[in-house]
Amino acid sequence: MADQSTKNSLANDVEIKGSIKFANEFTFDGKLEGEITSNDGILTVGESGDVHGEVKAKSVIVMGKVHGNITVNERCELRARRKRSALRDKGVLSGCKRTSRSSMSSLR
């Protein structure tokens, strides 16, 4: 039997107040007031994603907005239109990270 990974997604027309729990891969492009959690999953907050709450997963890729704490076991990537910054293993970012085109160009 072929190895199948399960990919789930919620589109930008979805609004949720509450909690989301997932396994494997999950892409969220909607609006959430609550938390997203996974013990071993990979979360992508898409460009339209707007999360107000806690995010906990094995790995997280943020292309949209997260207003709250992000806790990862492996890797967190913060992307802004074809540019990105990443926290390496055991890295800690405390406070606020905001990016704009001008500040991202200084990271090259």
Q: Brief overview, please?
A:
This protein is mostly beta strands and 108 residues long.
3D architecture notes:
This protein has about 110 residues and is mostly beta strands. The chain has a domain at about 5-80. The protein contains one helix and ten strands. A hairpin with a 2-residue loop joins strand 9 (about 70-80) and strand 10. The radius of gyration is 14 Å and the shape is globular. The N and C termini lie far apart (about 45 Å). Mean pLDDT is about 80; it is low at about 100-108.
Helix content, binned percent: under 10%
Radius of gyration: 14 Å
State the helix count. Answer: 1
Beta-strand percent range: over 45%
Reported for the largest beta sheet, the result is: 10 strands, mixed
Oligomeric nature of the chains: single chain
Mean pLDDT: 81
Query: Which regions have little confidence, pLDDT < 50, spanning 5+ residues?
Result: 99-108
State the total count of DSSP E strands.
Answer: 10
Terminal Cα separation, in Å? 44 Å
Shape: globular
What are the secondary-structure elements, in order, as H or E? EEEEEEEEEEH
Q: What structural class is derived from the secondary structure elements?
A: mainly beta
Give me the secondary-structure topology.
Elements: E1 7-10, E2 15-21, E3 25-28, E4 31-37, E5 42-45, E6 50-52, E7 55-62, E8 65-67, E9 70-80, E10 83-87, H1 101-105
Parallel strand pairs: 1-3, 2-4, 3-5, 4-6, 4-7, 5-7, 6-8, 7-9
Antiparallel strand pairs: 9-10
Q: What would the keywords be for this entry?
A:
108 residues; mainly beta; 5% helix
